[in-house]
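Example (one chain per record):
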Amino acid sequence: MVDRTMKGVYPILSLPVNSKGRIDHEDMAKQVEWFIDCGVHGMGVAMATEVYKLTDKERDGVLKTVVDVTAGRAKVVMNTGAEGTDVAIEWSARAEVLGADALMVRPPTYVPSVAAENVEYFVRIAKAVKIPIFLQDQSTAPVPPALAVRCAKAHPNLCYIKVETPPTLPRMAEAAELRGDSGLILFGGAGGAFVLEEYRRGSVGTMPGSTLPDVFVRTWNMWQEGNEKGAEQEFNKYAAIIRTLGQGLGLGNWVYKHIMWRRGVFKKTSTFARHPALAPDRMALKEVDQLLDELNLMGK
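Predicted structure:
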């Protein structure tokens, strides 16, 4: 029976690499332990992990590190979407063998397909594995609510969706309204910027970035306790830093890792983004440090 129990906070891991692009598996393991210490329910290797910049060998190595260190203490989700169905199936089957608890799959985008082709793409992947799949709805690879429901009805493994095509709130509300008896389970993404609003619209979990797992867990716990006001107050303290993390063109990858260093998780030598990715200037990093200092997050 496919696992439909996943909910809560599932941050997406950052990829610790040095100036030559080499992965620091020691810092990756440290990040996993930090996530677990913060009380997360799961974690993902996905776009914010720069998974699209990894070789097949590196993909395996990163996932193996995460699975081994997690050791069943939290769920592990691996992104296996690809431009071709056969590649996505191969990556998905491999991720299952290496111990992933679930997959995250986006539709092909280089040559966009019609809805029927996308449904077949997802169903073929679902038939190749025995673990659940998060349909990934991104602005560059959208999975509209109606298509997500269609997929959920087509195969029981296609039971989750990570909604992050902006604006996320109408899509979350529409998915909740359309899902009926399909069994589709809603998660939020997009850095967790609208996590509380998404909870109100039917989301049972969030997949933010790597830097504030403790904040998202505290907010989740308050929400589960019925303390909506407290959750809002807690989350709103970090609105400025979350807005800063939402920058595109690869800038966010640099900022995430800089914060991971400042919070004591990564070494300074692990804070580079894989090329290509726009690097922040000194002023931008100084502004981030000021925010972290004001939030009492420096040097923890």
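Caption: The CA atoms of residues 2 and 132 lie 6 Å apart.
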